[in-house]
Amino acid sequence: ADFWAEKWQKNEIGFHLSEVHPQLVKYGNLMLDDGVSAPYFPKRILIPLCGKTLDMPFLVSQGHEVTGVELVRGAMDDFVKEQGVTDDVTEADKAGMLVANVPIKEAKGKQGAGLKFVIGDFFKFSKEVNGGRPP
């Protein structure tokens, strides 16, 4: 954990893309569109080690419910600052993990769309942390 916290603190995050992953843009519809993997309804998407990926707001803008799990709090802090929603984040401690609901502007009016950011050890992520729903 300390290794990754230090990487974020020093901004040594060369793995982070400054755009939505091109393969997600190109092929995401093959998994998520109406009638492909299921009739349309907001999909529940889990992104472990999410960092501050722009894939999350992209997926939310498509109407999906996204949960990003990240070990380092600084990644979430950077994300909400860059999204311009710092003052609108609500946080709660659930089963020893920080759970934050992060409003995404593009989700307005899309029923079921939203982003939940969970800070903690991915291997401790459980349905207790996830509001009683399986991860």
UniProtKB/TrEMBL annotation:
<dbReference type="GO" id="GO:0032259">
    <property type="term" value="P:methylation"/>
</dbReference>
<keyword id="KW-0808">Transferase</keyword>
<dbReference type="Pfam" id="PF05724">
    <property type="entry name" value="TPMT"/>
</dbReference>
<dbReference type="InterPro" id="IPR008854">
    <property type="entry name" value="TPMT"/>
</dbReference>
<dbReference type="GO" id="GO:0008119">
    <property type="term" value="F:thiopurine S-methyltransferase activity"/>
</dbReference>
<keyword id="KW-0489">Methyltransferase</keyword>
<dbReference type="InterPro" id="IPR029063">
    <property type="entry name" value="SAM-dependent_MTases_sf"/>
</dbReference>
<keyword id="KW-0949">S-adenosyl-L-methionine</keyword>
<protein>
    <recommendedName>
        <fullName>Thiopurine S-methyltransferase</fullName>
    </recommendedName>
</protein>
